[in-house]
């Protein structure tokens, strides 16, 4: 039995349905083994290793299984670094297989030689080189165990080509799999009972309690549990940017998004005025705390954390309680422990106060959401999308690049269907991920329409994957926000109080023409009427991918809803008044 066959058999044993990757000189034996098992596992060829990684990342984000991708040696491995780093820092289970030069060639100047195990070590949970074909099953088991247990993350295996060509006596190895590690969370943990007693006591005695739901809640699929606990105890819920979608946005306890980028002013106000805050699945990092400057009233001793990773506990604030464990399991236990006859009146004034602020915010936002100014404003574009998504009436997987769409989508997007998931890769904020991510999202669940949102800067980095979408007939809806600039960076230039912007502008792409050149159905929208019509046709289109080239105002033209940027312009970020804020 060849090493390549062992590798493929083990992947199938762990329930891997699809492997994303790019062909190369060294991974031919792996492809031969995959071809022989086509009925049990599928290979999806990407046009770039980075794209393959983002496909695997989206697959891992939208399922409870690790995404798997592969690449050849040398440059292929180097191109794979950005998505692996993003997945690992975002706690997404991903396994990368770099098929490398044969071991005897090490140190002898073989083309594409690279110490991949060391290359990926700083950005993965585990990065090892396979040095014996008999070790393959053991190392694969370790890879799935590392990716899916504890805090999930990325794993890298450097597999020399000769390990795949070697003949292995099946009697000398065990091909067993750990079924617990085929999905996340593997071996979930619960804290001691006294920790849960302390958290519950703080939740049930505070007059202005608040739950903050982070990305770990979405990773653990614990949105229903957050909602159930909040309803049982009548506690309002805010989310971080990556926790968005925890509960339906029209829920009476759903306050909004906290932090710096795309925040809701009433949500940040709630964080400042709460007398106890329970953070679930959040690192409480720089975006959430606006560089550890907010809230102005310190969180020390009025905050508790629930997180699977004990290393982040009380890292930035002095916790009243630190609870290590899987979010869903811990919340389920708290729900079971919560009093059935909770005194809802104790917190109702607090809930009413926040709902009044929320209603006031959305009432004031109407002037922005309904604007017909030219060029098309991003707020108006989000309103068009909200209405089209609601009219569609089915669940979707929405993946947004970290740049242009983020601040306005985070603030104004309304997710009312719990089955719809929204993801933004926020660990390193790399561009070029959303377009290929729609492919991974589609393989994660073909009952949910994949939707990708990205600016024209991102589009230029991954445009080749339009061919992949067409080849696979993925029914993705792609929203291109087109304005001919790296808007976020240009906005940072203008925050310095001048218009001397350098190295940020480029020619706006002819998005519709480019898409049609790849046989992608496409439209161009320059105003809300055209966008409404294009979105209606896009959601009705079922014959493959489609793209809407949206000519939209840049976030470098008006200051977007970013707390720190508004503060630099001398504005009160917590104001609920709708206002056009200019840079200069």
UniProtKB/TrEMBL annotation:
The text of the family note is: Belongs to the TPP enzyme family.
User: From which domain of life does this come?
Assistant: Bacteria
Q: Which UniProt keywords are listed? A: Thiamine pyrophosphate
Q: Could you tell me what this protein is called?
A: Acetolactate synthase
Keyword Chloroplast recorded: no
Q: Supply the gene name.
A: ilvB_1
Thiamine pyrophosphate enzyme central domain: from which residue to which, for each copy? 197-334
Task: Tell me which CDD domains the record gives.
Answer: TPP_enzymes, TPP_PYR_POX_like
Domain Thiamine pyrophosphate enzyme TPP-binding residue range list: 401-550
The residue ranges of the Thiamine pyrophosphate enzyme N-terminal TPP-binding domain are 1-115
């Amino acid at each position: 039995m060849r090493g390549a066959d062992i590798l493929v058999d083990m992947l199938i044993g762990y329930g891997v349905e699809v492997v994303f990757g790019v062909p190369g000189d060294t991974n031919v034996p792996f492809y031969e083994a995959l071809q022989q098992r086509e009925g049990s596992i599928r290979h999806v060829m990407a046009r770039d290793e980075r794209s393959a990684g983002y496909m695997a990342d989206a697959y891992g984000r939208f399922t409870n299984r690790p995404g798997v991708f592969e690449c050849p040696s040398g440059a292929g491995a180097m191109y794979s670094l950005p998505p692996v780093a993003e997945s690992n820092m975002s706690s997404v289970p991903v396994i990368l297989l770099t098929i490398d030069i044969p071991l005897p060639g090490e140190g002898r100047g073989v083309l594409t030689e690279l110490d991949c195990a060391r290359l990926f070590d700083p950005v993965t949970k585990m990065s090892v080189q396979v040095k014996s074909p008999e070790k393959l099953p053991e190392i694969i088991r370790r890879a799935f165990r590392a990716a899916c247990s504890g805090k999930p993350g990325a794993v890298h295996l450097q597999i020399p080509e000769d390990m795949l060509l070697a003949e292995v006596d099946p009697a000398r190895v065990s091909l067993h799999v750990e079924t617990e590690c085929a999905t996340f969370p593997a071996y979930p943990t619960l804290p001691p009972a006294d920790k849960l007693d302390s958290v519950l006591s703080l939740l049930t005695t505070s007059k202005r309690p608040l739950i903050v739901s982070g990305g770990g809640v979405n990773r653990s699929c614990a949105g229903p549990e957050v909602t159930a606990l909040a309803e049982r105890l009548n506690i309002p819920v805010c989310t971080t940017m990556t926790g968005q979608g925890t509960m339906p946005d029209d829920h009476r306890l759903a306050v909004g998004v906290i932090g710096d980028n795309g925040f809701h002013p009433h949500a940040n106000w709630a964080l400042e005025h709460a007398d106890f805050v329970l953070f679930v699945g959040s690192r409480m990092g720089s975006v959430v705390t606006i560089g550890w400057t907010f809230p102005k009233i310190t969180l020390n001793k009025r905050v508790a954390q629930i997180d699977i990773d004990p290393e982040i506990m009380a890292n930035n604030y002095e916790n009243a309680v630190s609870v290590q464990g899987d979010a869903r399991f811990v919340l389920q236990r708290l729900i079971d422990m919560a009093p059935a006859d909770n005194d809802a009146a104790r917190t109702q004034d607090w809930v009413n106060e926040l709902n009044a602020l929320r209603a006031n915010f959305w009432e004031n936002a109407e002037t922005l959401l309904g604007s017909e100014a030219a060029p098309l404003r991003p707020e108006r574009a989000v309103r068009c999308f909200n209405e089209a998504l609601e009219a569609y009436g089915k669940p979707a997987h929405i993946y947004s690049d970290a740049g242009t769409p983020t601040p306005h989508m985070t603030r104004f997007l309304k997710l009312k269907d719990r089955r719809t998931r929204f993801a933004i890769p926020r660990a390193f904020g790399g561009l070029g991920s959303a377009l290929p991510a729609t492919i991974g999202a589609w393989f994660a669940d073909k009952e949910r329409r994949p939707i990708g949102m990205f600016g024209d800067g991102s589009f230029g980095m991954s445009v080749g994957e339009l061919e992949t979408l067409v080849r696979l007939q993925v029914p993705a809806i792609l929203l291109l926000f087109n304005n001919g600039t790296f808007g976020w960076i240009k906005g940072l230039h203008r925050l310095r109080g001048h218009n001397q912007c350098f190295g940020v502008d480029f020619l706006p792409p002819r998005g519709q023409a480019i898409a049609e050149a790849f046989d992608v159905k496409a439209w161009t929208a320059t105003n809300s009427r055209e966008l409404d019509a294009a979105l209606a046709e896009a959601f009705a289109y079922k014959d493959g991918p489609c793209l809407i080239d949206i000519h939209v105002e840049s976030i470098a033209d008006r200051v977007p809803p970013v707390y720190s940027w508004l503060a630099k312009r001398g504005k009160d970020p917590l104001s609920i008044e709708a206002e056009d804020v200019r840079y200069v």
